[in-house]
Design goal:
2 strands; Four Helix Bundle (Hemerythrin (Met), subunit A); 169 residues; mainly alpha
């Protein structure tokens, strides 16, 4: 389904796009970042929080990261301070890239067993599928954040993977 090279490429793309989003978001006043714009996670700040929350949850399953005590419904309020949120994002992206560098075909070929609180049941699925979901979740919510940033009149630069691959890999 996917390869370790794919995982490394997507981790690099994720980190670069997050860098671009946070740089653009930093040029938006805090009050505007927090304003409820009707997005699924309410505001730009809430969307960025949820995105980090989701990465942390999946990485607890993939790489034994510490379990976050924050539940999904509160994920948009996980970190109140934008500077702290940005620093946590940088650290997460660094750690996701380090994890991606260690992923092997054998690891991707295994099944992951876990309890999903979102589905409220125990699940078992191929790791390759779940890693694909991790990156799809990131892209989905970054798209929402990008729309909120664009609506605020800020530019993130190119967002297309094929335009960024030479820069990030």
């Amino acid at each position: 389904m996917i390869t370790p090279a794919y995982v490394r490429t997507m981790a690099a793309y994720n980190a670069e796009m997050n860098r671009r989003l946070y740089e653009a978001a930093s040029r938006i006043p805090d009050e505007e970042r927090r304003r409820d714009r009707g997005a699924f996670w309410h505001s730009l700040h809430g969307t960025l929080n949820h995105l980090l929350w989701g990465d942390r949850v999946w990485m607890t399953r993939f790489a034994d990261w510490p379990v976050t005590p924050v539940k999904i419904k509160e994920s948009d309020r996980m970190i109140a301070d934008f500077g702290e949120l940005r620093a946590a994002r940088v650290a997460a992206d660094r750690d996701i890239s380090a994890w991606a560098a260690q992923v092997t075909d054998a690891w991707l070929g295994e099944t992951l067993n876990w309890h999903s609180f979102a589905a409220n049941r125990d699940l078992a699925m191929p790791r390759a599928l779940l890693v694909t979901h991790l990156f799809n979740h990131q892209t989905h919510h970054r798209g929402q954040a990008h729309a909120l940033i664009t609506a605020a009149g800020k530019d993130t630069g190119d967002t297309d993977l094929f335009l960024l691959v030479p820069e990030i890999c």
